[in-house]
Amino acid sequence: MTDAILSLQDVTLSLSGNAGEVKILHGISLDVKKGETLGLIGPSGSGKSSLLMVMGGLERATSGSVQALGHDLTHMDEDALARFRRDHMGVVFQSFHLIPTMTALENVATPLELAGHRDAFDRAVEELEAVGLGHRADHYPAQMSGGEQQRVALARALAPRPDILLADEPTGNLDGHNGQAIMDLLFGLRERHGATLILVTHAPELAARCDRTVHLSDGLVSNEQLRAAE
């Protein structure tokens, strides 16, 4: 696939546990096109989140190759991987991972400052307004609801204008109403910024909004499905 922004070739992942080495991924090959929305689905323990972490260089593949934007993540050291993620990737987790001693504005602006953006706070204000939280910029995470915290996490992930957005069960800790709101924001902001979205989800309605879904079972791709034409 010539327009792939992310390409995995025969990727395996093994992790050490109390019972010894555990094989998580078993030779996955997968291409993701620039601008695509890809849903990773499957039962618990199938390797979805592990695959997402490998795609983002947060877990290093045991074997095989992971190419992102023409860079081989499997041969980067930790510092190079951190810089690559800073410059090209945004990550949203099920748990919000906000810094409790920082305001919403500071949580969004700090990664931009670390990346050397002189307009960090102006851009942070813009992103908080985009997720409907301009009026909560000076509030701390403990003063916000779960839905509001996830909105801040979305703003933080998208503020650097990432090429690739990785989302791991972003609605998993939210009730139905807030989950729907975050889902709408996620896809709306992705379209606004033009990022490639790779999404791990158990929610069928969220997976159905993706251009393509990849079903994992026991660390292998069991099938792929394109979204039906509307």
Name the beta content range.
Answer: 25-35%
Radius of gyration: 17 Å
- What's the CATH topology label? Rossmann fold
Q: Which stretches are low in confidence, meaning pLDDT under 50 for 5 or more residues running?
A: none
The helix tally amounts to: 7
Query: Alpha-carbon distance between the termini?
Result: 25 Å
How many independent structural domains?
1
Largest sheet: 6 strands, mixed
Fraction of helical residues = 25-40%
Shape: globular
User: Which CATH class applies here?
Assistant: Alpha Beta
**Secondary-structure element sequence?**
EEEHEEHEHHHEHEHEE
Strand order of the largest sheet: 6-7-8-3-9-10
Total DSSP E strands:
10
